[in-house]
Amino acid sequence: MVTVAVVGAGMSGLSATHFLASKGAEVETFEASNEPGGIVRSTTVDGHVLEHGPQRLRLSKPVQSLVETLDLGDELIYGDDDQSLYAYYDGDLRPMPLSARDAITTDLLSWPGKARVLLEPLTRGPKPGETVEAFLTRKFGEEVATRFAGPLYSGLYGTDADEMYVEYSLGKALDRFGVEGSLLVFMLKKLLQGVETPPIISFEDGLGRLPEAMYEAHAESIHLETPVTDVRRDGESFRVETDRETVAAETVVFTTPAPTTAALLTDVDDKAAEVVERFSYNPLGVVHLRSSFDGTGHGFHVIDDGFRTDGSTWNASMLGRDGVFTSYVGSGDPTFLDADRSVVGRKAAREFETITGAEAEVLSVNVLRPGMPAYDRSWEALEDLSLPEGIEICSAFTSRAGLIGRITDGRKTAASVLED
Ligand SMILES: Cc1cc2nc3c(=O)[nH]c(=O)nc-3n(C[C@H](O)[C@H](O)[C@H](O)COP(=O)(O)OP(=O)(O)OC[C@H]3O[C@@H](n4cnc5c(N)ncnc54)[C@H](O)[C@@H]3O)c2cc1C
């Protein structure tokens, strides 16, 4: 009998394992793949470090604390924060107004469009049932909502802003940052208080170094290549089944995406499994390109219609990864991702060439399934989700998708399990 069985060793499962083990809990973690990290994966192709999931991280307190505990400080590399992020709008790359400089100089927004932002303090907070697009339009005007804030936020998840409810997505982020009234006033206060955003970081060998080090620190209790095939109730505890063994556990923590969690939960609580099955995801194509494009910036979001590319990160400029660019494709039409990988890669390269004017060749193509949690209207399922005692979910679909959110969720889940 172990205290806790953790299903999955992506950043959620590794964080839960790390915080449980550091509090002395007896924990066994099962991971289907032959490597830890899940979505966070880095490889080296032709001498280029490629990120298959997140491209970079911010050195916020939870990350800094892990970096120190795992002794990774010497491997850190820092990104250049003082660069623009672009929108590809009306056939050109135009800076998004993310800094005072870009807010004044950008031609992404007209002067009336920029002036409309000043009315934001007079508008109210989110209304029940309001979509992200309706909320942003009401707050900042249509131009900002459709050319900047909407695509910037909803593009992270590959979901249209009019398919996302504020209360299950953006509203939660606003709550977390303590934004109660005006967003503009909140940002101005932070600016005046001199609150600094933590720096952009990665590791020399890529972000995959973080889950790798977390795995190394707890290798004795993490079983790779051991997919969980079923979870069953056994009196007050649970039996966690794999092809190799069956483990009895007082608590089971699911860190797998919703479809896998639903399938594994069925024999424990079929009603909860049915609710979990309702959360939808957006599959995503990640294409690494090599190009001599010498633009300075963090990348671009595509606003214009008619492209399969949603956006691109300029690893070359942001992190000094020479010649490397990462394009995200497919959210507009997920059936495109069923095409042969070479077709997906070629399309991404040709569109990158159209947008930047520089030649590009494909280094690698990956299609992530189920992909990103959509945070769309299906998130109403959260209202109906009730888990049986002894079952915990520590995953992006019940909380925040970002890595910092995953680390924090792992710590909170560990605390809640041990308190029980
Ligand atoms: C392309 C992309 C870019 C992103 N960019 C950023 C970013 O810039 N910044 C940021 O903060 N966040 C970013 N995110 C979000 C973040 O990377 C993810 O939310 C996070 O990594 C998810 O971690 P997880 O452990 O919850 O899930 P996963 O990484 O999906 O881990 C789940 C694990 O469970 C395992 N598993 C599946 N089935 C079983 C089974 N039956 N038994 C045992 N194990 C199983 C899987 O193999 C996997 O390892 C990005 C995500 C994507 C897809």
Can you tell me the residue ranges where pLDDT is under 50 for at least 5 consecutive residues? none
Structural class: alpha/beta
- Under the CATH scheme, which architecture of the largest domain would be assigned? 3-Layer(bba) Sandwich
Number of strands: 19
Give the overall form: globular
Strand percentage lies at 15-25%
Give the overall pLDDT as a whole number: 96
Kindly report the name of the CATH homologous superfamily of the largest domain: FAD/NAD(P)-binding domain
Quickly count the helices: 14
Number of discrete domains = 3
Q: What name does CATH use for the topology of the largest domain?
A: FAD/NAD(P)-binding domain
Q: Rounded to an integer, what's the Rg over CA atoms?
A: 22 Å
Largest sheet: 7 strands, mixed
CATH C-level class of the largest domain is Alpha Beta
- Between the first and last Cα atoms, what is the distance in angstroms? 17 Å
